[in-house]
Design a protein that fits this description.
The chain is built from six helices and 16 strands. It is α+β, with helices and mostly antiparallel strands and 288 residues long. It has one domain. The strands form four sheets. A six-stranded antiparallel beta sheet has the order 1-9-16-11-12-8, with helices on both faces.
Length: 288
Amino acid sequence: MGKEFVCCSFLLLLCVSIAPGNVAPSHTEDDGVGVLRLPEQKQEGRSTSHMGMGMGMGMEEDDLLNPGAKVFATIKDIQVGKTMPIYFPYVDDPTSFQFLPKHKTHHIPLSSEQLPQLLRFFSFPPDSHQALAMEQTLKICEMEAPKGEVQGCFTSLESLVDFAQGIFGPDSQVGIVRSSMISKSTPLLQNYTVAESKEITTGKLIACHNEPYPYAVYYCHFQLGSVNKVLMVSLRGDNGDQVDAAFLCHMDTSTWSAGHIGFRLLRLKPGDSEICHFFPAYDMVVVP
């Protein structure tokens, strides 16, 4: 599992391959970005794995049946030999979803006001699904941070490291924890048996979620004063495939809404227990 944890900001900038939700470039070298397309993700339901505190509220009862909601658990569920259904989405060609170098994106505004110009720049019709995806991502990036959170959207590893060091300390090394990609032959939802688990860190961490855009955009947020844990969990699927999965635990849920989908799925109440969730490979946890 050590390959999934990179603990040096220099290595982070050089080596980390980060996955999906974005586009495979059809390059034109004039601007260094090109005309890009948003790929289709091979998934049967909407993943809710990034629904920590403040996310996943007010979902309808039918959403409990959504296979993408099968990502929540508690630490006591992570026992060697225990089996549980878990959803891991598959995305085509993960090598196409890395951050672009900062110099290729810094001049492109990440702004809803500039959306018409951006659509022309990327050659997307205003009524296309790409345009809608871009609009939704820009709204996420521009929304006001919930009380007690620091957040931002990042389009390069350099800018993400700067953000992380602003939280962890200017001299801190920055690491990334993420799940391994599943293969095309792996069922999106199947039973997995816990083979091994290892706690990576307790304390400060930044959760980053890949958002659909013509190039890599990650929405990242940090909860002030929160206590969290990150584990790497080795899982063996019914089909024989192994997944090394990032497993994020929010240890204090006493202030969460009782309507959070994690409580409803696990039949818990605020403060009863920590709420944890598995991360898909295209999301990541940033840690010192």
